[in-house]
What we know:
Blueprint: H1 3-20, E1 25-32, E2 37-45, H2 48-51, E3 55-57, H3 61-69, E4 73-76, H4 86-92, E5 98-106, E6 109-117, H5 126-153, H6 160-178, H7 182-201
Amino acid sequence: MSRAELDEILRSTVRLARLSFAAAAASVFVRDVEHGTLVFEASSGVGEDRLVGVTIPGDHGIAGWVANTGEPMIVKGVAEDSRFDRGFAESTGLVPDVIMAVPMEHAGEILGVLEVLDPTVVGIGDLDAMDLLTELANQSASVLALSLASRGSGTGGAGPSSAAGEAALGRIAAAAAAAAGPRADQVTALLSAVADLLDAER
């Protein structure tokens, strides 16, 4: 699986996260431990055309807190939260009232954060909404790990990276089969998006 394909899966992830919660925007941040920053890896919604590639300090904002603690969170009335970076939010063109963010963890390491701005959780409930976003983040973390490994090795998807990609997709498929209730539709939608992408590349 090529780097371009892996990146497209992450873009599908944020689109699915945004649509699932009828949110204003959704983003994947990647931790750059060496430089102590968070990098916008993929974004959907308000500001998506100018956010990818932008870096912020690794300890700033709600995303920074989640990346460093590994704890998922939903913050309502974020303007009152000391962790909220209002200045940066204003620069993106969206100052949200609600932020929901969960860590993206792979093999015991927090690789990044999946964040949704102004999600609609009425009828879902905070706990179920967090569980759903966490499930989506968990299924996407393997893809993020492969994307980062591909960049580090400079491979285009041949050899071990392809095998790892197939294994990751197998885990996603297994999770989709095991999911129950409202989560099943969301996990299945992600798997369908991945399958459509791979079919288009054949």
